Structures are given as structure tokens and as C-alpha cells.
Amino acid sequence: SANLDPGIGKEIAAAVGVKLTHSDKVMYPGTKVTKATLAAYYAVVAGKMLPHIQDRPLSLVRDTDGDLQQTFFQKHRLPGMPKAIHDGQLEKMSGKESRILWVDDLAGLIAGVQMNVLEFHIWGSLRQQPDLPHRMIFDIDPDEGLGFTAVKQAALDIRGILEALGLQSWPLLSGGKGVHVVVPLVPEADWDEVKSFCQDFAELLARTDPSRFLANMSKAKRKGRIFLDYLRNGQGSTAICPWSTRARAGAACAVPVSWKELPSCESANGFDVFAAAARAQLPEAWEGYFDVEQTLTDRIRHAVR
Ligand code: ATP
Ligand code: MN
Ligand code: MN
């Protein structure tokens, strides 16, 4: 795993123009992961993370106490926020809520570290084109106690169905309990079409394989099954950004893996910042993700109804 030298983290923060205060503050209790460590982490993963986060409206999870006990979501500018976290209006937005935050460089990521951000969550559309999603996500949420083997099998099954429909997908270890199956799209279908497709897809799975899946978020009904959470796919909904740290014990990160290596992954939170940084220096696991050109056609949408 990588050596995330806090001294280097401080130097990089200064070099990109972010004033890192209390840089030795431990952000994950029981570890040596400080704000400076996180600055070093984001410097290592920025090359792979920035294409996922640039120009996406953000929801930031902050932990000002550094104890992981009380975290909160922030979507709007506060006084004193570093300038590298931009705020502005969404362009060509049909809805109401239109002022959003975004980052576009390493300074923005490290500015997040400075303000105790532990999670960067992103919309599925660009701020310049907020009405047309460029990706959809199947968020696999297992019942407590269901093992990771079942999660992986679910991800592979979802991939197989998507493939049969003509859609390529890529798996993300969430850094928590589950896997997100991510499907990049040429932004043509609107949010309603994408969300309906994901709901139809989840309900189809729940109908055909009810012992394993349900399409209802009720935890009481989950009982040893997987909730296929299609709710990530509405306008304004967010999902964890690939390479983001998580606000959970152990400093785990959301990490892209390939379909080939997924079966050998032992958990969704197996990569802490040191392991994730080491991995970010290897060849891209999501080869082709930014190049694939696929759309949610009427044929595909009708096939899952
Ligand atoms: P896990 O694998 O443990 O389920 P996850 O990131 O998928 O991790 P979920 O609870 O399934 O976590 O939530 C999915 C997404 O929903 C999150 O990544 C986040 O973007 C969004 N989300 C969850 N809770 C909130 C909240 N209170 N406010 C805003 N967005 C939220
Ligand atoms: Mn989830
Ligand atoms: Mn979920």
C-alpha cells in the first residue's frame, strides 16, 4: 500500500493554494489518517477521480469533530468556504433548486479536506446539462448479515442482464457494504426515462427472483435479500464519487474494480486510503468507461416493462 506522507500532503495543499489548518488532526479515530494524509491521498487519486467529479453538482459529507459520530450533508455555499469549491447556478435547469457546488481540480478536492469533507457525492449529470443524465446506477443494498458473496453475485447478474440489453456497465466497491453497478450513457434520455427504466429493472428482478431481490426500500421486508436501490437515479439524487473516502470507520474508499477482479474482492470496504492510493497508480480498472457510447433506447426501456 502507498505511503501517504503527511509532509507531502501539506506541501501539495500549499502548492495548489489551499491553506490547510489543523493538518495533523486525525479524521478517522484509531488510525493515523490526518487531514494532511487525506490531502496526500487526493493528490495521488486526482488523475483518476477528477474525470468523475468535474462539473457535477456535489453533496458533501462533512465531519467537523473528526469522530465519525455526527456527519452532515452540505450542498450549498457557506461563508468562508475555500474558493476552489465553486458555487453557481445550474445552466438550463427546469427544476427549482438551482444553486449548486462543484469542483474541477485537485485544489477543489483538497479544499474539501480543509473543510473536513469525508465524502464527495455526485449527481449523474453535468451542471451544464442538468436535465440529461450521463450515467445510471444500480445501488446494491444487502440486508444486514447477507454476505459479500451474495452482493457480488447480484452485481454479476445485473451486469449480465444489462449486457443482454446491449448496455455495458462497470462495478464500484462503495467503501461501505455494497456495490454500485454504473452504466455510462450518452446524455439523451431524461431523468424520468432513466429512473423509470431503473425502477422497472429492479421490479423485474424482484418479480423473477424474489428470494434474492426486492425493489422496496423497507428494511423490515428485506430479510436476507438485496434491495436494488434505483432511487439514486432521480435528478438531484447523488451517489458516492469513485475514489472518494467514506465517513466510516477504517478510512475505506469507493474504488472502481474490473468485472474480472470483482469475484476475488472480499468486501466492499477492503481498500483504505493507503490501499486505494496504491491501486490508483495501477492501470485503469474501468477501461473504456469514458469512451463507450450507449443510450437508453425505447427498445431497451420496453424490454424490462
Ligand atoms: P453502501 O454500499 O453501504 O450501501 P452507499 O454509498 O451505497 O454505501 P446508501 O445508503 O446505499 O450508501 O446510499 C446511496 C447513496 O445515497 C449515497 O451514496 C448518497 O449519495 C445518497 N444518500 C444517502 N443518504 C443520503 C442523505 N441523507 N442525503 C443525501 N444523499 C444521501
Ligand atoms: Mn448502497
Ligand atoms: Mn441505497
Automatic annotation (TrEMBL):
Cofactor dependence: Mn(2+)
Protein name: DNA ligase (ATP)
The organism of origin for this protein: Mesorhizobium caraganae
Catalytic activity, reaction form: ATP + (deoxyribonucleotide)n-3'-hydroxyl + 5'-phospho-(deoxyribonucleotide)m = (deoxyribonucleotide)n+m + AMP + diphosphate
Keyword tags: ATP-binding, DNA damage, DNA recombination, DNA repair, DNA-binding, DNA-directed DNA polymerase, Exonuclease, Hydrolase, Ligase, Manganese, Metal-binding, Multifunctional enzyme, Nuclease, Nucleotide-binding, Nucleotidyltransferase, Transferase
Keyword Hydrolase: yes
Part of the whole protein covered: 291 to 595 of 595
Gene, per the UniProt record: ligD
EC number, UniProt record: 6.5.1.1
One MF term in the entry's GO annotations: DNA ligase (ATP) activity
